Amino acid sequence: MRVTAGKHRSRKLAVPAGRDVRPTSDRARQALFNILEHGGFVDGGGSPIRDANILDAFAGSGALGLEALSRGAARATFMETAAPALDAVRQNLEACREKDKAEILRADATRPPNARAACGVVFLDPPYRKGLAAPALTALAQAGWLAQDAICCVELAADEGFTPPEGFEQLDERRYGAARIVLLRFVCD
CA-CA distance, 65 to 149, in Å (whole number)? Predict the structure, then answer.
């Protein structure tokens, strides 16, 4: 697994061993970032990633947050509960020399701590078929993690049911093999 674009393009990323972490494929990650950067989600065009505060919840290896940093995000917070995944995030941040732009939190995205700063882009990649996406989005919003009009990128199993919680509007949806990516905008104050 590698960073697909930006200043860290082609940098190999560490992935925790075992079956608990299912990293977003390079193909799906590349497609997601292309949609974000060219999808017209920001007034006047441009990328919502550039200079943004990013949250990578259910971070796993941290590939989504690292991709965002590689493409110009100002800061990234990585939220994860599994120790091996947190170790991989630390290793990847060190390899990319991005530790000064990152915060790592051992926390459950369905019961997050209060945010220090709201994020303009949120990546949510919960374990498939556990029904965690909607509760996590609600909890993150209540804890102040989502800026008004934040773009939320939710990865689910292709056949997994999902209804966005109140306060979120669906912008787009794409399928990539066994994965489905749903893009939402947080529209509630």
Answer: 19
